[in-house]
Design a protein that fits this description.
- The structure holds 2 protein chains of 2 kinds.
- Chain A is an all-alpha fold.
- In chain A, 76% of the residues lie in helices and 0% in strands.
- Chain A is built from 6 helices and no strands.
- The longest helix of chain A is centred in the first third of the chain and has 28 residues.
- Chain B is mainly alpha-helical.
- The chains are: A mainly alpha, B mainly alpha.
- Chains A and B meet through helix 3, helix 4 and helix 5 of A and helix 1, helix 2, helix 4 and helix 5 of B.
């Protein structure tokens, strides 16, 4: 049960972290420009589709969904989860160093905790191997040998 | 906050988290059953991989739950503050996902992963302060 990810699989996990957070940031920036959408102004949703921030946000979120599902096809849900949480850290750091917002000590602590969580999980195996399946295979093998 | 408002707030938050957990576990189960997407893509190209994913009933059920989760979250945000709803649904989803992954996907959630779930929950709450 050794944990060995290929470089392309690391790239997928990094894509999961980055696309979700940057996509959400772009969407919220775009929607702030579009204005409040309520039931009387549903036409605004159509207008939003022409906002470059909204469009690039949607493209990134489609990319997120694709890479998230690829990751789930070879890793456990509980292995990929901390990677998605790392997106919050990316958003916080973006707001600190790009938008120059102030980060409180609480936020820095939160960032440190999520980074630790990613470290714990990344050190372990990425996929649970089910011994039951091997057992069944053994049974089949022994049946074939008889 | 009166008792009825609190009840409504927390049932909305629990509902959003429950839909997210069901959706993620169904999608994870679908992908686990399909097998490595990279291999499928090598064999039958990107359209083949997309077709394989879209023809999985588990995936479709999961995607439906995620769509419902999106609208439930929108509804919740109209009656609950973002500063409570966002971290509460996120941390409940993380805990619930870990429990559901152990129960339904039979993932080996060892001490390392429980600790990670706990750290992520506290981290998410702290980040929203």
């Amino acid at each position: 049960m050794k944990h060995a990810l290929k470089p392309s699989q690391y790239a997928i996990l990094i894509a999961v972290m980055l696309t979700a957070s940057v996509g959400d940031t772009l969407l919220s920036r775009g929607m702030a420009q579009v204005g409040t959408v309520d039931f009387h102004h549903l036409g605004l949703l159509w207008q939003a589709l022409f906002n470059p921030y909204v469009v690039s946000g949607i493209v990134l979120l489609i990319g997120f969904f694709a890479s998230y599902m690829t990751a789930l096809s070879w890793a456990d849900l509980t292995f990929v989860m901390p990677a998605t949480a790392f997106g919050y850290v990316v958003v916080a750091l973006l707001s600190r160093f790009w938008l120059h917002e102030h980060l409180s000590i609480y936020r820095w602590t939160g960032i440190a905790l999520i980074v630790c969580a990613v470290g714990f999980v990344a050190n372990g195996p990425s996929r649970t191997e089910h011994p039951v399946e091997h057992h069944e295979l053994d049974l089949m093998d022994s049946g074939a040998g008889r | 906050m009166t008792a009825t408002t609190a009840l409504r707030t927390w049932s909305c938050i629990l509902g959003v988290a429950a839909l997210a957990i069901t959706g993620e576990v169904l999608i994870a189960a679908a992908m686990r059953r399909l097998g490595d997407l990279d291999i499928i893509r090598e064999r039958s190209g990107l359209p083949g991989a997309i077709r394989a994913v879209l023809s999985s009933p588990l995936f479709l059920a999961g995607a439906l739950c995620m769509a419902l989760n999106f609208f439930a979250l929108l509804f919740t945000l109209s009656i609950v503050d973002l500063s409570l709803a966002a971290p509460a649904t996120a941390s409940l989803t993380y805990i619930g996902n870990a429990i559901a992954a152990k129960l339904f996907l039979h993932e080996n959630v060892d001490r390392r992963r429980w600790l990670a779930v706990l750290f992520v929950c506290v981290g998410v709450v702290l980040l929203s302060k």
